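Lab notebook page, bench 4
Experiment: in silico fold of construct C2
Operator: M.H.
Input chain length: 531 residues
Purpose: comparison with the prior construct
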Amino acid sequence: MNTDFLIIGSGIAGLSYAIKTAEKFPDSTITIITKTRSDETNTKYAQGGIAGVWDQDNDSHQKHIEDTLIAGDGLCKEDIVALVVKEGTDRIKEMIEWGAKFDRHEDGLYKLGKEGGHSEHRILHHKDVTGQEIERALLQAIEQYKNIQIINHCFVVDLITQHHLGFLVTKSTPTITCYGVYALNLQTNEIETILSRVTLLATGGCGQAYRTTTNPTIATGDGIAMVYRAKGRIENMEFIQFHPTALFEPGVSPSFLITEAVRGDGGILRNNRGEAFMEKYDSRKDLAPRDIVARAIDQEMKKNGTEHVYLDCRHLDQAKFAAHFPNILEKCKSIGIDPFHQMIPVAPAAHYSCGGIQTDAEGKTSIHRLFACGECASTGLHGANRLASNSLLEALVFAHRCAESSSNIYNSTSFEKNIPAWNTKGTSEPKEMILITQSLKELQLIMSDYVGIVRTDVRLQRAMKRLDLLFEETEELYRSTKVSPQLCELRNLITVGYLIVKGAQFRKESRGLHYNTDHPEKSNLLQNIVL
């Protein structure tokens, strides 16, 4: 199969890029591949909202820029922060034109929320299901473009580069080029070759590397792992953001997210003795940036020997809470918790990868003809810690920039010929799925126990040794059995785990989301860890 533009992922990044490209090149062919349904994405599960400067009387681009830089703890690229914030308002307006509906007051003005790390109210939202509303609007907008096709239930196995043509490719090779992908058609169970002029990775995050995560089961770091195998550059993977307030339900995965907007509306974190504790850790109390709040909760849990803390909403206006957070209210009541009379048990859960595939200001990766945007990309916006509700904004801005910068490639490239078919010689059907499922459990335990919110050199060393063994076992399985989505996801998660641990070992300091008790201070050397 040949397609002019190939998009891997159907979240806000992939869909908005597709719309932009379809408008720019109405005669081109645009193909979106997703490994499950088109609406099953990380975007769908975003609750809080999207940050943007709307209230010009009280807010400004400069305030949003400063809030982002403070949250990023010294590692943000200031030029990237400025362009995302300044271009973001126009991109959100386009989203509204495409049909996204955000909550308004009776006078028609948008209701603007405030979340941790923000100095002003600037979060647009649709109740507590903003991501779901954005996904709905984009999928509906896609339908009017006849040159866009979506292929569901198609799992991308690997990027096709010169390596598959018999050439030696290393990280120092300056001309690595992406010609398309090998993809497993889950309906025919056959590996298909899909060639493209331009490929965009919008594959989302990697939360499934951890035992407890707010991410859906599809968040297995596929794009990041594929780029690393193709000798592309990955950076800052040690900065995994743990959302401070996931609903505590033992054994339930993914964890249900209690959006930060609840604390923005006045929710208070309390320990098992009912004490409000955030004032001990930061003057911004419950609205401190996520890295600070997550570490504070972790410390309270360890100090008191508990598995969770509480989010107290009993004092909040009930009608307003029910209108703004109907999904949260319904979920809590479904497990026997009435937020108006009981405190909600919460604990941190893996939530967002601030690092990823290294890109420039145009979304270009280190591999020619390959772009990346959304959570799988590391643009320089987030630095060492993402400011709440900046992720959807980043995806919109960089989808636009990717669409602009990929135009020249589309006009100047052709499809690569002589790409070999996928070779299944010497492989057989897997005989025992437990070899895959048990390895996945081991990986998630390793990452959660040794590479969580607080780390040490010894824990990281142990994690690496155990990951090495898992890697060897899984690669042997990969070489000897036929490809399956479960095996590919395990392989990708092991790669992602390795990248997180290796980045954490290189960073001999504590900064943002990376806290190592053996190196509790920040160093004077500000740098990105590129692998």
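Observations: DSSP finds 14 helices and 18 strands in the chain. Residues 174 and 531 are 16 Å apart (CA to CA).
Next step: discuss at group meeting.
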